[in-house]
Amino acid sequence: MKKSFLILLSSLILFCSCTGVSKKHSIAVFIPGICADSPTYAMLRDGVIRAVDDYNQGKEHEQKSLLYVMEAGTNQAEWPAKLTALAAEHKYDVIISSNPSLPEIVTPIIEQFPEQKFILLDAECSGNPNICTMCYNQYEQAYLAGYSSGLFTKSHRLALVAAQEYPVMNNIIFPYFEKGAKDADSAASVEFRIVGNWYDGNKGAMIADVLYQTGVDVILPICGGASQGVINSAVNNGFYIAWFDSNGFDKAPGNIISSSIINQDKLAQAVTTDFLNGKTQWGTAKMLGVKDGFVDFVQDDPLYEQTVPEDIRKKMAELLESIKNGNTVIN
Questions:
Q1: What's the pLDDT band for 23 if we cut at 50, 70, 90?
Q2: Residues 289-305: pLDDT tens digits?
Q3: In this structure, which long-range contacts are made by residues 233-242, counting pairs with CB atoms below 8 Å and at least 24 apart in sequence?
Q4: Distance of CA 11 to the CA centre of its chain
Q5: 233 and 205 Cβ atoms separated by less than 8 Å
Q6: Alpha carbons 45 and 310: distance in angstroms, whole number
Q7: For tag attachment on the chain, is the N or C end more exposed, with fewer CB atoms within 10 Å?
Q8: What average pLDDT is seen over the chain?
């Protein structure tokens, strides 16, 4: 009797796999911030939603994968506790998120909950079988922002205003923004300023006002909600903004001179689809850039064409094409 039952169970498992009966997954998206204040986090959410919707198309209710989205807010000190609480529920097959600081945060959580899996975008961690990471080639992204700013500046003085210091900012984004600016304009100098958080628009404006008063005419803000203060200062004072991660031209028409973007929604959809189909490569870390289609420089926005002179647009198009075909390597 027992042997017959085992044979029947094995046959049922084989039948399910052969007929495409799908496992029902449960996915959580952890937003380390607020989607309304961050286009990149909104892209993360939207990409995962599209992947789950596509996967669930045509499936019976009991086979459809479930999705939960948590917005953790801008207080980074609260993220570890909120992520731990999410893992402690023991109900999510994977938690998907995006932020360079997350590998350090999730490592002790995995020690506490060894069954929990994480897919982390805009982050890098290899060798942990519970983590898969995908990072953007921010060497390329920052260089494109710097090169366009160097071509545009008249005062030869630029700045990057960051929310805080962290390894990717200190070791990649600022140095390669500066490198791009100086490759475009050998006389350029680049200032570096810190807001201290991701939300203080008033402080962002104060820092930008002071930079403008010292002669800076192009600023790259990477400071979350505080970036709005930098934009307000640009509009009031008449200087220019290089934008990062998303298309920002409509944020201040005439003041935004570039948008070096990441296609986070596209990547979030791809990694979620791979997970749902059992194709995630756990323990790996991949860097994706211009050639892969996940880093880009916006050239087709009418506001770009209206604000930036044709000779600068032509040089940027040539640089981007050179990176795409491998003739120019940024690292």
A1: low
A2: 999 999 999 999 999 99
A3: 233/204, 233/205, 233/208, 233/209, 234/208, 237/208, 237/209, 237/212, 239/208, 239/212, 240/149, 240/152, 242/145, 242/146, 242/148, 242/149, 242/218
A4: 45
A5: yes
A6: 36
A7: N
A8: 93
